[in-house]
Specification:
- This protein is α+β, with helices and mostly antiparallel strands.
- 17% of the residues lie in helices and 42% in strands.
- The chain has one domain.
- The radius of gyration is 21 Å and the shape is globular.
- The protein starts with a helix and ends with a strand.
Length: 389
Amino acid sequence: MQKFYIRVLAISLTGLMVCANVNSVYAINWGELGIATRKLVKPTAKSTEELFFKSKESSHDIKIPPAAFLQPARLYNEKLKNNLGNPQTLNIDDTNNAITIGNSKNESNNQNVNKDYKIKFNYQVKKGAIYKLKASGRLSESMTISGSTKALEEKNTTVSGKLEGTITVTEVDDMNREKIISLRVSKCTMSKNDDRNETVALAKGTRVIVRLQDPDKMFLINNKKVSSNIKKLLELFFSPIDNNVTDDDIYGTKERKKIGDSWNVNRAMAAKVLSKDGVVIQEDSIKGSTKLENITTVNGKPCLYITGKFEANKINLPLPSDYLIDKTVLSGLFATELPVDTTTGSLSDNTYVSILVEGRGRPNASDANIAMIYKTTQALQRSFTYIKP
């Protein structure tokens, strides 16, 4: 299973491309908005001060997520943490508008504190490997288009899902990463717009082929592409692998580390992953660090409990010349439990990604300037049980 460290970046890139293609994605009919004589003002739905990063620095030297992301974080905890019985949750500090990702277990002892460990995110996947996956995810997207006195267009959508199943690795690539996997569904449900009533998305026994390095044909059932709704759901749990950069390249270190040690992300590698399809991330705007928090035990197996943070705020999007992006901020948090012996991948992981874009433009020569705010958050929690590593 591709772990979520690069997934943090992949989700970010997807969200940024939504902004770059706002006309087609949201089907906004600018000509019908009736704003030809209006002047640009700040959006009234949410103030800029409410939406963007501000004030204090975190322990990893990364700005605290804005207050606007605290409610999605609360929904994440409410909807996901009980589904897996996993102690990793988002810690919410209302006083300082802070979100951190944490684990309630703290099993470190004096012996562990004095010992150093090899940090290895990626392990050598074998064809025929089998493991069980249990996951919960949630995606929230919102866009506000504003004119002089009111919001002219508002779109808010959420997709939540749960997935349980058994995965068999059917093909690996030259770097011994998963290339094609077969998912046998035990349970798969989804809900939209935070509806409390979940519906069965895929029946028990359904076999899904996941082509991790073929984004155009990533999910197949009976050799046919899945519907757009099922694709959106499955994208909560699986991300494509389309480059030669690994989690170790970005978040890892060649040095052995002790409990409490932290190290910076590889900014050049992170920029490389994110800068594609016309999106350019300036390397000097990237901040991030990874930390070995403690040693935990999962199913009797000693694990390194590792957390990480990531942020970038200088992002160039491939927009038409009549658009101007005022601010872009993306951030990601992750936590994982990696076996000390590195014989398998992580036994649990937890991801939270947020993206915020503010812009303005003149879609037509006759239009006055309008303002746009796009925001997305995605949360994911997964646990893995290896049957045949």
